[in-house]
Amino acid sequence: MRSLPLLVAALWAGTVSAVPAKGASSCVTPSKPSVLPSSFKWTSTGPLIGPKDDGRNLAGIKDPTIVQVNGTYHVFASTAKAEGYNLVYLNFTSLAAAPSAPFYYLDQSPIGTGYRAAPQVFYFAPHKLWYLVYQNGNAAYSTNPDISNPAGWTAPQVFYPAGMPSIISSNIGNGYWVDMWVICDAQTCHLFSSDDNGHLYRSQTKVADFPAGMSEPVIVMEDTANIYALWEASLVYSVKGGKGEQKYLLVIEAIGSDSERYFRAWTSDKIDGTWKALADTEANPFARANNVVFEEGVAAWTKSISHGEVVRTSVDQRLEIDPCGIRFLYQGMDPKASGGEYNALPWRLGLITQTNSAC
């Protein structure tokens, strides 16, 4: 999620359980181990979440992160307009209720005003706290014991107190340091980020030390010949039932030859391992206009399948996803509105559901 500074005021409604019930999940456990397919097919809803007519004059809602806890969806997203970015929170119990869900703008919490964007939320079990990771010119985070209390987030702290790591500053060129993403295994927490200049980075620290002690980043992937092929919005998940090279899934947003956004995918046997192509081309993407169809009666409202997140029901720091019918909340946009100031583009959020599960 590329950007610049800003933002704004408040509104709120709704409460839900703060901590996930043990073993809670809306997915049916498969009767046998499942794996990811080598190609994907999706069905999309229309736009579900967009700016409110509430005086904020937002251009777009984008960069969502989503978890489902005890039947309630919790969504955090960037609020965007020409002047810059901040964050918003909403919750709902069904997709039908998403368009009317009240917004709570997180500049009204201790997260504060100014540039905050591209959130990721997860429950860090060792601390019994929810973490919200986001960009604020650094890799920032806030914590909260109760995800349903948007006023309860702490003021921003950063993973890199000395500022942008030198390996990023020496490779970023004219890009932006964006889209921080945390995932942990049993021993180590890993922090991924991108630079809009063809590089994907990873840092790490011990689970026992998290969130302190992030190492100097290393370059995980790079494509300096075509920086748009490794653009931004990286996601890394552990795959339930995954074996061998399919234990972990990496997804990265790219900009295609038609200037539309889409996602590429790789897999690996470990988070700090070698990533093997799964669905990483325009012809065979993870999610792109050519493998997404719209629900009956829904107009094809976007050609970009852009910055988003898998709907997670296993919400702790391991970021485990069930490969049986993946659901993915994404940002899309009317193709006729794609020109003009980037920060003021009219992004909306929709949901794609995988229709060719290998389960």
The amount of beta strand, in percent, is 35-45%
Q: Which residues sit in consecutive blocks of at least 5 with pLDDT less than 50?
A: 3-19, 21-34
Helix content: under 10%
The shape is: globular
Question: How are the strands of the largest sheet arranged?
Answer: 18-1-22-21-19
Structural class: mainly beta
Can you put this structure into words, describing what you see?
One of its GO terms (cellular component) is extracellular region. The protein has 359 residues and is an all-beta fold. It has a single domain (42-354), classed as Tachylectin-2, Chain A, CATH 2.115.10.20. It has one helix and 22 strands. The protein has one helix at residues 166-169, and strands at residues 42-44, 60-69, 72-81, 84-92, 104-105, 117-124, 129-135, 139-144, 157-158, 178-184, 188-194, 199-206, 218-222, 232-239, 248-255, 261-268, 276-279, 292-294, 306-310, 320-321, 327-332, 348-354. The strands form five sheets. It has a five-stranded mixed β-sheet with strand order 18-1-22-21-19, with no helix packed on it. A five-stranded mixed β-sheet has the order 17-16-15-14-20, with no helix packed on it. A four-stranded antiparallel β-sheet has the order 2-3-4-5, with no helix packed on it. The longest helix has 4 residues, at 166-169.
In short:
By secondary structure, the protein is an all-beta fold. The protein is 1% helix and 38% strand.
